[in-house]
């Protein structure tokens, strides 16, 4: 049986003008192999996402930045909510479930079961997808270095976590559910979970799953891991950027409303939850000004 990776190589080798490689997870060795197949005169656009928790567990490589940057006519872009896997060569497309990783493309001793199917850019669903890819931003050195720092602060156990990453809560749209973040460690420790109300435990376990916190951490290391993963979430990062210039409650609520996170929690309640998490896990950097409830950087903290 022909491997999807070999089929993709042949697909890209036939390009004459344009190649688009769009996948949430990209390993640098796989991308290097694919780019070698693309004729040198063909322009290449690579679209992916950089989530610190995903980089930390090894499903994506930040080194693709230098690889793409070293090729004439190639561009690397980022789209936090990306989940599509689409590979265009001129007017021909392969699309389906396969990321640009060895197991996904069959270049592994334990390949995944994946699907890639032939489409054209004129398929209505493809047209919608391509139009939304226009929202992607150019990857920069500053963003790569920031993601590397955040990923490096996440403690990852020596386990095979990759299989669970794609089925996790969509990280680009995640904000915490647990209204009492001081209860998160209690939910993390199995023997203390029975002391929590069912609704509190369910919210805490959902948040722990989204943050991908490894097991067995003592409380100080747990809090540091949560803080790093929490800061690395795209929705949280957007809030922190706004808070660098002070953030009124009304503006925070509106920011969350714009994110359209559809899980039944009103933006007003969600904002209060986010405020609690920020002061609990990032209290060394952020505070709520008591006179007007503005979220702001602590004096002298500097920009994170």
User: If strands are numbered along the chain, what order do they take across the biggest sheet?
Assistant: 6-5-4-1-2-3-7
Helicity range of the residues? Answer: 40-55%
Q: Shape, please?
A: elongated
Q: List low-pLDDT spans.
A: 158-172
Mean pLDDT: 85
Characterization of this structure:
The chain has 304 residues and is of the alpha+beta class. It is built from 14 helices and nine strands. It has two domains: 142 residues, Endonuclease, Chain A (2-Layer Sandwich); 130 residues, no CATH class. It has a seven-stranded mixed sheet with strand order 6-5-4-1-2-3-7. Helix 1 packs across helix 2 and helix 13 crosses helix 14. The radius of gyration is 21 Å and the shape is elongated. About 5% of the residues have low confidence.
What are the salient characteristics of this protein?
304 residues, alpha+beta, Endonuclease, Chain A, 14 helices, elongated
In short:
With 304 residues, this protein is an alpha+beta fold.
List the helices and strands and how they pair.
Blueprint: H1 4-13, E1 18-22, H2 28-37, E2 43-48, H3 52-57, H4 64-69, E3 74-78, E4 85-89, E5 92-96, H5 102-105, E6 116-119, H6 124-132, E7 137-138, H7 141-152, H8 162-165, H9 184-188, H10 198-211, H11 219-232, H12 234-243, H13 249-259, H14 267-281, E8 286-288, E9 295-297
Parallel strand pairs: 1-2, 2-3
Antiparallel strand pairs: 1-4, 3-7, 4-5, 5-6, 8-9
Helix pairs in contact: 1-2, 13-14
